[in-house]
């Protein structure tokens, strides 16, 4: 079954998704084969350059015209969050399946509306929490479900980058609330929240704090991916630079979360540790093929954290890749997402994480923001 794809967005995430559609059928044997039909973006010259590089058949500068086409089966939204709602609702009403990058929306109200529309339309919908597709994270979930670490007491996670430490870094769209919705909280913290839900369970209450360290930045002259050049003048930063919060989970576990782009030396340090009654698990995305596991059952003379190299074909997705010990990388997480989504479309089965998971994440994001505003514990169920 061929699945004609229309991708909206052609820069950082657009390239990551383009590579996934290009490479997935070369390594997996999908029932649903993505056809790279149309790449869409506002800058025709920029879109055409990326389309030529990755092999998209056509380009378009209007997402509205893209959705009006009758030959598109899947719309992939890799554009900024402020347009997610409008594009997704239009695609759903046209009966087109949807793959949307995170965070799902600008707020909980938008996210819930999007979920209702896609459910009413009966289409497949997926949200881009790609770190669920890391085989080491899949192993962590398996160990937890099998009871290897027992009752979970703690989940602590950090997502640390250093991209904004330079005060002369320009005022890109990710630093503007009207486009991004939030800063490090939504961009990085949403990944931590989703992984916590995936591995530990639902949140019951949160309390947080945040800070915008650099209040004004140079205006943008040009932007490519995550880099940018400044022009004259300055503008106000309207999102958080860093957000930290505490949480309680339904199963009684305690959680701590930190997301910042002001951690010098940390490039993409997405790490979590889970402690339970029988053991612990540690993961660090910068060493994404490894999972650290500690078991209290081990003999005292040999006890300690063991480092598991998660490259054996017994683990999810890895039978399609290289021999054991030959590691995979960041780009493979997107390939795994595309594979699962295309199989769900071809087989008419459900896929996760989907817009429901996007809503649940949005509820926690917004609960943290409300807790900061009102300086109190907030339950996501209040929203």
Description:
With 383 residues, the protein is an alpha/beta fold. The protein has two domains: 130 residues, NAD(P)-binding Rossmann-like Domain (Rossmann fold), CATH 3.40.50.720; 207 residues, Dihydrodipicolinate Reductase, domain 2 (2-Layer Sandwich), CATH 3.30.360. It contains ten helices and 16 strands. The strands form three sheets. It has an eight-stranded mixed β-sheet with strand order 8-11-12-7-13-14-15-16. Strands 3-2-1-4-5-6 form a six-stranded parallel β-sheet, sandwiched between helices. Strands 9-10 form a two-stranded antiparallel sheet. A hairpin with a 2-residue loop joins strand 13 and strand 14. Helix 4 packs parallel to helix 5, helix 5 packs antiparallel against helix 10 and helix 8 packs across helix 10. The longest helix has 20 residues.
Keywords:
about 375 residues; alpha/beta; Rossmann fold; Dihydrodipicolinate Reductase, domain 2; eight-stranded mixed sheet; six-stranded parallel sheet; 10 helices; about 35% helix; globular
Describe the global form: globular
How far apart, in Å, are the first and last alpha carbons?
41 Å
The biggest sheet amounts to:
8 strands, mixed
Q: For the record, what CATH class of the largest domain applies?
A: Alpha Beta
Mean of pLDDT: 97
